[in-house]
Amino acid sequence: MFVNVLYFAIMLFSFKDIRNIFRRASFSKYNTLSGSELVPSVSLLVPSFNEELTIIENVRCLMTLNYPTYEVIVINDGSSDSTMDVLIKEYELVPLTNPEVRGSIPTKNVRCVYHNEKYPHLLVIDKDNGGKADSLNAGINMSRYPLISSIDADSLLEKDALIRMARMYMENPEETVAIGGDVRIANGCVIENGAVKDVSLPKRIWPMFQSIEYLKAFLGGRIGWSRINGLIIVSGAFGLFRKDYVIAVGGYRGGYPGEDMNIIIKLHRYMLENKLKYRIAFCPEAVCWTQAPDSYSILSNQRKRWGRGNLKNMIENRDMVFNPRFKTMGMLTMPYNVIFEALNPYFRITGLLALIGYVLLDMTNWHILLVFGLVNLASGYLLSVGALILEELAFRRYTKLSDLVKMLFFSALKFVGYHQLGVLWRVQGHIQYLQNNNSWGTMTRQSWKDKNKAA
């Protein structure tokens, strides 16, 4: 009951902010900014490991954004496939003899830096394998501009995504230290020349469940958390940061998953400990499309990794929990994540075992069980429907009636099996954490051309 009340409260914050979001998305003159010299320059960091099938489309997309001044820095993290080869061939890259290193965050060895004068805003770093966080730190060291944006190599930005995010930053540049973008599932969409040409829902069941999850998490959750400055994560797929503050907190933490959550917690801690005014915002109209795992094994590996990362971050920052010194983060966000994210699987498992025990000992009544179960399902379903209403009110990316019906159906279906698998994967992730398992897991990619055929 308590967690559902909290979920609905966060959802209400999202609805409270939806009018401003709708007006900003519909009537903002962001297009006028795309040629303005007042817009801050941005370095786009693209960490890449074994991304030969998606990297060219990604870079092609990033090189054609509606943004005045920016650079694209691709960081090849010791790929064992042909990621570097396809980049060198596509953009006719040549090694730089004396690349300028502007930062000093420790990273794995940088083998070579590539460039081509025909593409002055593209830089490619080839380095030893050190993980995503290490790659981002290497990109920060080479970056020229005061803002940095992290973008996954299997993701595609909408052409106006970065300028929409920059507009939000320009509203309050002194206090804004990070902004998260909205991440959508691209499985099922038609991709042409590095852009989403036709939006549609996935055909396969696993990406479809993830589409519903992402809508609920980003629209139903992060809008609300952002409103009270309690956002704990900016997705690694797409986020914007002030570089000086990222460097001040030591850059991204390497050696463990969950670097996207960790950098945000470190920024909250730094700003609060130094008594600096700040905000970490969410810009739902800035959209990034990403490939979702479309098989059980790949999806389970991803969720186990997320479970490990969440638990690691909560343990490392346990001093913030219920600590009034850290304001919203200490009194609400961190306790919420410890109790209802990290410990949630154990409440569910022990609750189920207790329920079975009550039934076996004839200590309950089936009418009570039925009512309790229906109320529980209805509340969860209403939260998913609330996210769909937010989508329809402000964004309407999915215009087909069949897509809306499909989302309503899968919002209910996910409580039968998929929801329970999420509990299992998180527990398995915690076990891996106790075993000191830092592996990333196999993440097989498909080219966007193959995705179009599958769609």
Describe the structure.
The chain has 455 residues and is an alpha/beta fold. The protein is built from 15 helices and twelve strands. The chain has helices spanning 2-27, 55-62, 83-91, 132-142, 161-171, 205-227, 243-248, 259-273, 296-316, 327-342, 344-360, 366-394, 401-413, 418-434, 448-454, and strands at 42-48, 70-77, 94-95, 110-115, 122-127, 147-151, 155-157, 176-185, 190-192, 195-198, 238-242, 279-290. It has a ten-stranded mixed β-sheet, sandwiched between helices. The chain has a two-stranded antiparallel sheet with strand order 9-10. It starts with a helix and ends with a helix. The mean pLDDT is 90.
Q: State the low-pLDDT regions, or none.
A: none
Largest sheet: 10 strands, mixed
What percentage of the residues does DSSP assign to strands (E)? 15-25%
Q: State the secondary-structure class.
A: alpha/beta
Q: What is the topological layout?
A:
Elements: H1 2-27, E1 42-48, H2 55-62, E2 70-77, H3 83-91, E3 94-95, E4 110-115, E5 122-127, H4 132-142, E6 147-151, E7 155-157, H5 161-171, E8 176-185, E9 190-192, E10 195-198, H6 205-227, E11 238-242, H7 243-248, H8 259-273, E12 279-290, H9 296-316, H10 327-342, H11 344-360, H12 366-394, H13 401-413, H14 418-434, H15 448-454
Parallel strand pairs: 1-2, 1-6, 2-5, 8-12
Antiparallel strand pairs: 3-4, 4-5, 6-11, 7-12, 8-11, 9-10
Helix pairs in contact: 1-6, 1-12, 6-12, 9-10, 9-14, 11-14, 12-13
